[in-house]
Design brief:
The protein has 319 residues and is of the alpha/beta class. The chain has eleven helices and ten strands. It has helices spanning 2-18, 39-49, 72-80, 94-101, 155-172, 177-203, 219-224, 244-256, 271-280, 295-299, 304-318, and strands spanning 32-36, 53-57, 83-86, 107-110, 119-121, 144-147, 209-216, 228-234, 261-265, 283-287. The strands form three sheets. The chain has a four-stranded parallel sheet with strand order 2-1-3-4, sandwiched between helices. A four-stranded parallel sheet has the order 8-7-9-10, sandwiched between helices. Strand 7, helix 7 (219-224) and strand 8 form a beta-alpha-beta unit. Helix 6 (177-203) packs parallel to helix 11. The longest helix has 27 residues, at 177-203. The radius of gyration is 20 Å and the shape is globular.
């Protein structure tokens, strides 16, 4: 936290240099300016706002969200926007420092406030929660290490957040509240349909055990669809090298339970998953958590729905 505060102070000193990055009255086109920290919030706001909102994504495409540090231009964008959307979890603790120190022009909405929260957990075989989090003791199997912030990974949560974003936009711009509500409901209905397709798939899937040779930021997805999972690290871990004991445990689990695939997440080097899969003689596959997307996907118009549809097809092939 001290490092974040020091960074923030340095950035605040540089704000005058970045003033030219903000929109001038001449550039104002009458649309709401929405700033989102991560891709899911960006996508939900983009759908709900439609032509009435200009939505900006702070997290650069293709970068790791947990190591993101705001620039002076980012701070100005947050300060001056009409609606600021953020997670409210450990990966964006820098937000609290900004919100406590600047005078916000607009409103804020935390994704974690839109749905019921689950506790991040340490399951059997998983590396213990590492140092660097604001907890004062080590955590063992099954202990609570804070709320899991990856709320959007369950489609039903994504639909609820989309509707909440539409409502927030309508409160800021009452004259167009009906349009925001209609847009949000249309996209939320797409997500609801996707949710039904996942439900139908898992109803006939038999064994729902998944092994991730990676972080596991899919607690909400696993909870919704009753998936039994094992993983190398918790969802917000910054570790990249598991112990020999963790590798051995996951490899043995794959062998003994005849699990056909070891999974990894986007932007992972998937070396851990490859190692486990090679030792167990199985294949690997990627599950996209939608936390961030590649520049190519962004340019191609990828959405939460399209990425999750891709996940569904991958599950059909590899689970």
């Amino acid at each position: 936290m001290k490092r974040i505060h020091a960074l923030f102070c340095a950035l605040m000193a540089m704000l005058p240099l970045a003033a030219g990055c903000s929109r001038t009255p001449e550039e104002d086109d009458g649309r709401l300016h929405v700033v989102a920290t991560v891709f899911p919030a960006y996508d939900f706001a983009r759908a709900a706002g439609g032509e009435l909102a200009d939505v900006e994504l702070l997290l650069p495409p293709g970068t790791e969200s947990h190591s993101y540090e705001p620039t002076p231009a980012d701070i100005l964008a947050v300060q001056e926007c009409d609606l600021f959307l953020y997670l409210g979890g450990e990966s964006d603790t820098w937000v609290d420092t900004i919100l406590e120190s600047v005078e916000m022009k607009g409103e804020t909405l935390r994704m974690v406030d839109c749905v019921p929260l689950l506790e991040e957990e340490t399951v059997e075989g998983m590396e213990s929660y590492e140092d660097g989090h604001d907890h004062d003791h080590d955590h063992g199997l099954g202990e609570v290490v804070g709320y899991d912030e990856h709320v959007w990974t369950a489609p039903r949560n994504a639909a609820a957040i989309t509707r909440a974003v539409g409502e927030a936009l309508g409160e800021i711009d009452p004259a167009n509240a009906g349009a925001y509500a209609t847009n949000a409901e249309a996209y939320a209905s797409e997500i609801d349909e996707l949710d039904r397709r996942f439900t139908d798939f898992f109803a006939g899937a038999g064994d729902r055990t998944m092994v991730f040779g990676d972080r596991f930021p899919l607690r909400y997805f696993a909870e919704e669809f009753d998936i039994h999972y094992y993983a190398a690290f918790p969802g917000c871990s910054t570790q990249t090298e598991p112990s020999a004991a963790t590798i051995a445990f996951l490899t043995d689990k794959v062998r003994r339970e005849h699990i056909p695939t070891v999974w990894y997440i986007e932007f992972s080097n998937h070396l851990v998953a490859d190692s486990i899969a090679e030792a167990a003689g199985v294949q690997t596959a990627m599950f996209h958590t939608c936390h961030n997307i590649s520049p190519d996907d962004l340019a191609a118009g990828a959405t939460y729905v399209s990425l999750m549809e891709r996940n569904l097809e991958t599950l059909r092939e590899y689970l």
